[in-house]
Amino acid sequence: MSEDNRNVWNWGFTSGAENWNGRLAMIGFVSALAIELISGQGVLHFWGIL
Terminus-to-terminus CA distance in the chain, angstroms? Predict the structure, then answer.
């Protein structure tokens, strides 16, 4: 096991960047689900794109 801090914000293909990418993707997914549950519309309809 390496002693790298996986919570450090690094650019490029590093373990820290992959952790942050996953965390932000989870926040985006939960936000999209919340918009659909609250508004009763899909995200694109909510923003007026479709």
Answer: 48
Tokens 């996953």: give the residue.
Answer: 22
> In the prediction, which pLDDT does 2 show?
60
Rounded CA gap, 36 and 22, in Å?
Answer: 21
Cβ atoms of 16 and 5 closer than 8 Å: yes
> Token pair of 24, please?
């932000």
Q: 28-48 burial by CB neighbour count: b if 16+ within 10 A, else e?
A: eeeeeeebeeeeeeeeeeeee
pTM for this prediction: 0.71
